[in-house]
Amino acid sequence: MPEGHTLHRLAGALHTAFADTTPDVTSPQGRFVDGAALLDGTVLERSWAHGKLLFVDFADERTLYVHLGLIGKWFVLPVDPAHDEPPVVGAVRLRIADERHVADLRGPMACTVVDQEEVARLVARQGPDPLQPAQDPDTSYRTISRSGRTLAELLMDQTVLAGVGNIYRCEVLWRHRLHPLKPGRSLKRASWQLVWDDLVRLMPWGVRTGTIITLDDVLEDTAAALERGESPVVPREFAVYKRTGMPCLRCGSTVRSKVVAGRNLFWCGGCQRRT
């Protein structure tokens, strides 16, 4: 399942391509015909995300709600105005298209038209999103501080913290020397603030580059390349994620792994000791 930065990046691409236009909205697969008919011929006002939930607002207070789930894909591609609209390939649940762009949605877990009340309900069920402005980290901490569940479980719970997936949970816990199997109620408020602030700092780079960056040297190189006006090639390198049995980049101890909350968890057995 894509992490929150992917959804925010996709929302930005949809907004750039279609905002303030009246695109064609169709369901080539046939499973979203009624919903497409409600949106077709109306103005697409904006696209935005909260955590792993994607929303596309249309005129008349109608909103397209999409959850990609495990296999959903949605690509926004430019088209040549001199040529016909690209043919549909595969099972496309939803197509949004105009003379400049086409966006085909395949395999989402959820794809439906909702009203503003339902949008508010969906967002209210989520925890704070580090990629959204003016979010209150104390909302998450109130749940964490009363929970006997592990930090690894809590960080993956979208009702506690929206948008964080497996890579960010592994890496941010390593960055702050927190054992992932530590119970939430033992986490100090100051430690949680450090984790939150780090996510607020790191996740926008995922939106900007399309790649999760958690190593400071990679972040510095990427920032320097962008300042020079270059398109950086961001290496897919991490401190502990998918590095089972390898030495920790900080202390040299062995990186360990275990399935927690349905995903492979990775942490250092040395500098992330339980105590």
Structure overview:
The longest helix has 21 residues, at 189-209. The protein has 275 residues and is of the alpha+beta class. It is 32% helix and 20% strand. Helix 1 (4-18) crosses helix 7. The protein has a four-stranded antiparallel beta sheet. The protein has a four-stranded antiparallel beta sheet with strand order 2-3-4-8, sandwiched between helices. Strands 9-10 form a two-stranded antiparallel sheet.
The strand count comes to: 10
Strand order of the largest sheet: 1-6-7-5
* Low-pLDDT segments: none
- Number of separate helices: 8
Which band does the percent of strand residues land in?
15-25%
Mean pLDDT: 96
CATH class of the largest domain: Mainly Alpha
CATH topology value of the largest domain:
Helicase, Ruva Protein, domain 3
What is the total domain count? 2
The best one-word shape is globular
Instruction: Give the distance, in angstroms, between the N- and C-terminal Cα atoms.
Output: 32 Å
Give the CATH architecture of the largest domain: Orthogonal Bundle
What sequence of helices (H) and strands (E) makes up the elements?
Answer: HEHEEEEEEEHHHHHHEE
Classify the helix fraction into a percent range.
Answer: 25-40%
Helix/strand structural class: alpha+beta
The biggest beta sheet reads: 4 strands, antiparallel
Radius of gyration: 20 Å
